[in-house]
């Protein structure tokens, strides 16, 4: 073993650490007191001699205090109430509360750690020893040592430990839980660490090298902690954006960069993103929207809404915290169960048009923006019921500036298209919609393939190329073109993205794959005051998308199913988790029982190896009645006292002295019966019985006499 | 290992068994009666010299009868050497004594091969270890190297010198003495050697009346000079064989093992008793049962001998030693706590 554990910290270091801890954690007086008590050891001459058992006892005491503090902290931090709530109703709100209670409990106990383990350190400081054998602390080592000594091996030497540096570390760790902004904490920590490391420095290098490297480390540490602080702020602020960008395959509420103008084949994956369970007989909603956008710049649709524009959706129901009302007062009759992943616990929910209420949605937080995007924070997988009906939607009413705006560079193409459609005169919105639909349906085809072709005009845009040259494209072309044409013709419109639902995977079950991602147009119906879905992409797109399923598709689907079922369990979307929690209780009880009664079990086992106690011969001897009788007379045998010695003690009582001889005779017979492997003959056995009877009778007469 | 037929034939176990009467209580009873008689005669004879030392004589003879060796540990002048000499004189057997000194060499104990000019050959000159009763006086004064020369002799009743194994006498009994007050110029016995002694005990000071009686007896000359042998070597060997006829139940064997096992986990004990301690305790209890006139072992005999048989083998932790705990105390605690078969 290395001699390292013997190192004692420099004078006053522990005291300083304790004062620092007291200052940081708000126990200044206690910290100063404990520091004085610990450093006062230098003024006291007396040292106590503690045995290993004493150390072990104090260690056990400290451990018990730790347990008690855990219970106390748990209680004072509303732990029982929060966890009761969690067991009764495992909603996400309660889960979050319970998590917060655990965190508060841990924080308070960490703050108390130096107090809890102070007795042990003080004991070491005031003892004659510099170090404590590891066995006093480690149960494993203790058992190993006991086993070794049972098998006769001597104790391995050198496993001693000076706990002061560990306590020093504990104080610093406990100081982390502090209230101020952290700058004094950092510098205090740096000074104390430098002080603590000073005696451990390598003597090979000069003071300058040591100081330099120390300063460098501190500087780097300061810079890093600042950086970490900034990073935390950044992540907290841009959390959702960052995550939604990382989580591929889903949409961003802020912008949608289209693939317009891209050459070649669009690659779409067959990964299953959503699973739907519809009401019997009722088909699924054709489109599930995740986001809609207002402004078209270049080839990108932007919502032009900041993160802050998301407003919380209140959770009006106190009893059922999984119901969220999106459109208050709306009557809804259709419902669909949607399962979707929330990568990183955060994401936009795909919702059918006209959704009014969400049921069974176990989210921590639900927010919506004015463009009808609903953002949820919750577990990695949510399964909820969306209740929808045609009628009012989440979206804000049209803004007559933004929702009618189109980029100037597209004006030429749009005008040309309007002329071609013959809509130059004033027409009703109905006619305009029909005209546009007709235009795309009759003259355009759906294609994922974009050929490289010569531009007809110097400043030709991708949209113009689509509208007049290729007349073929994917949904983004159609949706963008439709939106901009409607705006050009004075009808407010928005660009929407989401998924098309068409693939049935079972009875009333549908799956939505990554390639089912779709874009369409939202058009404002002035007459009803409702935003309506308006999809001009030729219906053949679905057939084209589905035409090339790879051969291994069914394997991938099975794997997706497995992953989905696992996620359900993992994110608590089944009752299983509750069963697991309740199932853990008996397991824990058994464990506790094993820990408490283990030693007894071991003893019993030890006896069992050589045969049970009942196996010994002669245990049916009548002598035991006699022993019991004499015991009642006041002479009780100790467990380690042999019978003859006990008997001589008993007959020293004058009342019993007269039956000494018969008792000795009985004992001799009993001993032969018990301990002579040859045992007794039949007559001797009956003699033993008779003699015991005689002795009992005489004892009786002694008692009554 | 290759086992030649010749070594098998001299195996003491196979030699001694046919000498015992067949296992019917009659034959055994006769063997035990003879053994008891030998014990009584030797014990009486020694008691004439060693006044007031009944328990010590009893233990010494237990060790002799059970085939173990004895370490007497007591203050100077309490009669350790006298006891050993009295035993040696009571038996008509060879007796040799080695006074251990720091300059004693292993060859002084075992013997040495000397080159003879006459026949140009080495001749082995047997050392004092080739005897029946060996008194190793003040054994802790010799260097560990010399002390360990006795190891093989005590454990296996043979010595290896110059690569040749030489068997010792049928009866080979070592009585070693050491004095606990002196530390300077002594070498405490190694643990391995301590384990080879079946028993360690002390004599202690006798009562004042008995001390007066000792003075009276030695007024003219030492009574040891008048002591005559009362038993022959063959009779002592018969006594040893008598011990083997004593029965011991499985339950009491278990009790012996439990006692020794408890020393391995007892607090304050660094090194507990070995299985050799269990064997020694069982054999000693058998001898004591024989002396007590019983043909089987009882728990009392085990308890009586537990301390002298086990205590000297225990190594206490330094911490426990300084706080005044002794191996004897630890063992007495174990005896009290361990449930005795009744």
Offer a few descriptive terms:
heterodimer, A: 705 residues, alpha+beta, 4 domains, seven-stranded antiparallel β-sheet, 22 helices, 15% strand, disordered N terminus, B: 342 residues, alpha/beta, Rossmann fold, Helicase, Ruva Protein, domain 3, 2 domains, two-stranded parallel ribbon, globular
Oligomer: heterodimer
What is the residue-averaged pLDDT of chain A? 79
Could you say which overall geometry of chain B the principal axes of the C-alpha atoms support?
globular
**Overall tally of structural domains of chain A:** 4
CATH class of the largest domain in chain B: Alpha Beta
Helix count from the secondary structure assignment of chain B: 15
Work out the helix count of chain A: 22
Task: Note the run of SSEs of chain B as H and E.
Answer: HHHHEHEEHEEEHEEEHEHEHHEHHEHH
Number of strands of chain B: 13
Under CATH, the topology of the largest domain in chain B can be stated as Rossmann fold
Strand order of the largest sheet of chain A: 10-14-17-11-5-23-22
Fraction of residues in H or I helices of chain B = 40-55%
| Rg on CA atoms of chain A, Å | 42 Å
Spatial order of strands in the largest sheet of chain B: 3-6-9-1-10
Strands of chain A, count: 25
Task: Give the amount of beta strand of chain B, in percent.
Answer: 15-25%
State the low-pLDDT regions of chain B, or none. 1-22
Q: What can you tell me about this protein's structure?
A:
The complex is a heterodimer of chains A (705) and B (342). Chain A has 705 residues and is of the alpha+beta class. Chain A folds into 4 domains: 4-200, no CATH class; 255-570, no CATH class; 576-614, no CATH class; 616-704, no CATH class. In chain A, strand 22 (503-506) and strand 23 (509-513) form a beta hairpin. In chain B, helix 3 (25-49) packs across helix 5 (80-90), helix 11 packs parallel to helix 13 and helix 12 (275-291) packs across helix 13 (299-310). The A-B interface holds A 49, 51-53, 146, 149-150, 152, 154-155, 610-611, 616-617, 627, 637-645, 671-672, 674-678 and B 25, 247-252, 254, 261, 264-265, 267, 269-272, 274, 295-300, 303, 315, 319-320, 322-323, 335-342.
């Amino acid at each position: 073993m290395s001699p390292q554990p013997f190192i004692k910290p420099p004078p006053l270091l522990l005291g300083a650490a304790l004062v620092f801890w007291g200052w940081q954690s708000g126990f200044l007086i206690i910290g100063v007191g404990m520091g004085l008590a610990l450093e006062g050891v230098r003024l006291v001459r007396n040292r106590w001699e503690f045995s290993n058992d004493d150390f072990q006892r104090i260690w056990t005491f400290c451990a018990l205090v730790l347990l008690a503090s855990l219970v106390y902290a748990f209680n004072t931090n509303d732990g029982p109430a929060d966890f009761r709530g969690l067991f009764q109703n495992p909603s996400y709100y309660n889960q979050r509360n319970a998590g917060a209670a655990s965190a508060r409990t841990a924080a308070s106990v960490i703050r108390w750690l130096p107090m809890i383990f102070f007795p042990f350190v003080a004991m070491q400081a005031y003892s004659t020893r510099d170090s404590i054998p590891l066995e006093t602390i480690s149960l494993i080592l203790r058992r190993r040592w006991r086993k070794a000594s049972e098998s006769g091996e001597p104790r391995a030497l050198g496993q001693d430990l000076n706990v002061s540096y560990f306590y020093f570390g504990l104080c610093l760790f406990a100081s982390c839980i502090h209230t101020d902004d952290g700058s004094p904490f950092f510098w205090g920590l740096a000074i104390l660490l430098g002080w603590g490391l000073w005696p451990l420095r390598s003597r090979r290098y000069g003071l300058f090298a040591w100081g330099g490297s120390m300063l460098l480390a501190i500087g780097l540490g300061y810079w890093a902690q600042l950086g970490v602080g900034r990073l935390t702020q950044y992540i907290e602020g841009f959390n959702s954006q960052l995550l939604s960008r990382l989580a591929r395959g889903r949409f961003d509420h802020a912008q949608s960069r289209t693939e317009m103008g891209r050459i070649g084949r669009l690659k779409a994956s067959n990964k299953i993103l959503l699973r739907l369970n519809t009401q019997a007989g009722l088909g699924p909603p054709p489109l599930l929207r995740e986001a809609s956008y207002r402004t078209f710049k270049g080839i990108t649709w932007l919502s032009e809404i900041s993160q802050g524009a998301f407003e919380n959706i209140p959770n009006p129901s106190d009893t059922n915290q999984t119901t969220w009302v999106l459109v208050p007062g709306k009557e809804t009759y259709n419902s669909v169960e949607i399962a979707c992943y929330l990568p990183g616990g955060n994401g936009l929910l795909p919702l059918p048009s006209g959704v009014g209420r969400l049921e069974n949605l176990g989210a921590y937080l639900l927010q919506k923006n004015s463009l009808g995007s609903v953002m949820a924070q919750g577990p990695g997988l949510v399964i909820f019921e969306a209740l929808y009906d045609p009628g009012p939607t989440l979206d804000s009413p049209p803004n007559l500036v933004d929702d009618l705006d189109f980029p100037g560079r597209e004006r030429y193409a749009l005008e040309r298209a309007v002329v071609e459609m013959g809509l130059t005169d004033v027409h009703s919105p109905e006619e305009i919609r029909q005209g546009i639909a007709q235009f795309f349906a009759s003259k355009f085809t759906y294609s994922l393939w974009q050929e490289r072709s010569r531009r007809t005009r110097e400043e030709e845009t991708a949209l113009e190329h689509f509208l007049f040259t290729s007349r073929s494209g994917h949904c983004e072309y159609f949706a963008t073109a439709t939106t901009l044409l409607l705006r050009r013709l004075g009808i407010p419109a928005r660009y929407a993205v989401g998924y098309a639902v068409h693939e049935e995977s079972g009875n009333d079950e549908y799956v939505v794959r990554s390639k089912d991602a779709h874009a369409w147009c939202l058009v404002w119906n002035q007459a009803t005051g409702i935003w309506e879905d308006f999809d001009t992409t030729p219906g053949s797109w679905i057939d084209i998308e589905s035409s090339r399923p790879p051969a291994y598709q069914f394997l991938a689907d099975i794997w997706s199913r497995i992953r989905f079922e696992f996620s359900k369990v993992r994110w608590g979307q089944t009752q299983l988790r509750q069963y697991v929690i309740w199932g853990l209780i008996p397991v824990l009880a058994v464990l506790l029982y094993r820990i408490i009664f283990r030693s007894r079990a071991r003893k019993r086992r030890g006896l069992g190896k050589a045969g049970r106690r009942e196996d010994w011969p002669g245990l049916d001897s009548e002598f035991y009645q006699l022993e019991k009788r004499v015991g009642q007379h006041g002479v009780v045998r100790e467990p380690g006292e042999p019978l003859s010695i006990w008997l001589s003690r008993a007959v020293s009582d004058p009342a019993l002295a007269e039956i000494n001889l018969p008792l000795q005779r009985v004992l001799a017979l009993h001993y032969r019966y018990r301990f002579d492997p040859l045992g007794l003959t039949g007559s001797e056995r009956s003699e033993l019985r008779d003699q015991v009877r005689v002795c009992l009778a005489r004892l009786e007469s002694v008692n009554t006499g | 290992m290759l086992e030649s037929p010749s070594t098998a034939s001299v195996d003491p176990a196979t030699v001694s068994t046919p000498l015992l009467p067949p296992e019917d209580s009659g034959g055994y009873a006769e063997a035990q009666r003879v053994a008891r008689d030998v014990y009584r005669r030797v014990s009486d004879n020694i008691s004439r010299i060693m006044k007031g030392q009944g328990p010590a004589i009893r233990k010494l003879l237990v060790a002799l009868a059970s085939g173990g060796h004895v370490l007497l540990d007591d203050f100077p002048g309490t009669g350790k050497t006298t006891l050993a000499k009295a035993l040696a004189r009571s038996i008509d057997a060879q007796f040799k004594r080695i006074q251990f000194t720091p300059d004693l060499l292993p060859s002084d104990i075992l013997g040495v091969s000397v080159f003879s000019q006459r026949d140009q050959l080495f001749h082995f000159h047997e050392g004092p270890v080739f005897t029946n009763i060996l008194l190793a006086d003040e054994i802790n004064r010799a260097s560990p190297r010399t002390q360990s020369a006795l190891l093989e002799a005590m454990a296996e009743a043979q010595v290896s010198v110059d690569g040749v194994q030489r068997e010792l006498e049928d009866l080979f009994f070592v009585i070693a003495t050491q004095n606990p007050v002196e530390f300077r110029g002594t070498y405490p016995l190694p643990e391995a050697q301590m384990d080879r002694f079946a028993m360690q005990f002390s004599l202690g000071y006798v009562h004042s009346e008995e001390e007066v009686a000792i003075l009276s007896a030695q007024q003219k000359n030492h009574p040891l000079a008048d002591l005559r042998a009362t038993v022959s070597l063959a009779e002592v060997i018969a006594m040893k064989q008598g011990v083997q006829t004593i029965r011991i139940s499985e339950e009491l064997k278990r009790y012996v093992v439990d006692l020794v096992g408890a020393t391995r986990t007892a607090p304050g004990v660094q090194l507990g008793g070995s299985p050799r301690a269990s064997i020694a305790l069982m054999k000693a209890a058998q001898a004591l049962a024989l002396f007590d006139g019983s043909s089987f072992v009882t728990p009392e005999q085990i308890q009586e001998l537990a301390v002298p048989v086990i205590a000297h083998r225990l190594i206490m932790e330094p911490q426990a030693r300084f706080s005044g705990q002794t191996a004897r105390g630890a063992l007495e605690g174990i005896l009290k706590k361990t449930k005795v078969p009744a």
